[in-house]
Write a structure and sequence with these properties.
By secondary structure, this protein is an all-beta fold. The protein has two domains: 147 residues, UDP N-Acetylglucosamine Acyltransferase, domain 1; 32 residues. Helix content is 0%, strand content 35%. It has no helices and 26 strands. The chain is globular. The model has no long low-confidence stretch (mean pLDDT 94).
């Protein structure tokens, strides 16, 4: 299955695009980025150079992904999300005699979005973080700390408000200002079982009789 690239998309030298992947209008993908199979890059999204994006990834419109970001398989990045890679950026050198290079340096901090995670629309992601497997981030959140697997977070800054199944169904929502230390949950939709102890989540498949 061939990839599709819209005629208005700008694809720079050295970009690799996998089979069945669609690149929509006015997307700009910079040099040496790798995009896996069966993924979608939405309109007017900008992906910087040397970015790594996995298979079956959905990136909606108006997303900005900077250098030093890696996106694993099955991730969803909703419209208007912004990634960063420098905590203390400056445009020019201290004497204001030249622009700082855009090449990665000691200030460039990588961020990884793990398998199956979802970022809601309009999220802003600080740098040097890991967003865990199948984690879910509510729309408009400001992510300033790493997020563990299966955590449901939201707010500015984002905070833990519950947990979420790999199929997307939330459980153990925070309704009273706190979450229990130990939780056992079986998802009625997909039959995966979750055990939460001290904020760490483990999963197992429930046998179907």
């Amino acid at each position: 299955m061939k990839s599709y690239i819209h005629p208005t998309a700008l694809i720079e030298e050295g970009v690799q695009i996998g089979e069945g992947t669609s690149i929509w209008d006015s997307v700009h993908i910079r040099r040496n980025t790798h995009i896996g199979d069966h993924s979608i890059i939405g309109e007017k999204t900008h992906i910087s150079y040397d970015v790594r994006i996995g298979n079956f990834v959905k990136i909606n419109a108006f997303v900005y992904i900077c250098t030093a970001v890696s996106v694993d398989d099955g991730v969803m990045i909703s419209a208007g999300c912004i990634f960063t890679n420098d905590r203390y950026p400056r445009a020019a050198d201290p004497e204001l005699r030249s622009l700082r290079s855009s090449e990665p340096d000691d200030h460039t901090l990588p961020t990884v979005v793990r398998e199956g995670a979802t970022l809601g629309a309009g999220c802003v992601v600080a740098c040097g973080l890991t967003i865990g497997r199948f984690a879910m981030v509510g729309m408009g959140s400001l992510i300033t700390h790493s997020i563990s697997d299966f955590q449901l977070v939201m707010g500015s800054p984002a905070r833990l408000v519950g947990y979420v199944c790999r199929c997307g169904q939330p459980f153990a929502r925070d309704t009273a200002g706190s979450l229990p230390e130990e939780i056992t949950h079986v998802c009625s939709a997909c039959r995966w079982q979750y055990s939460v102890q001290g904020g760490a989540v483990s999963e197992s498949r429930v046998a179907i009789a």
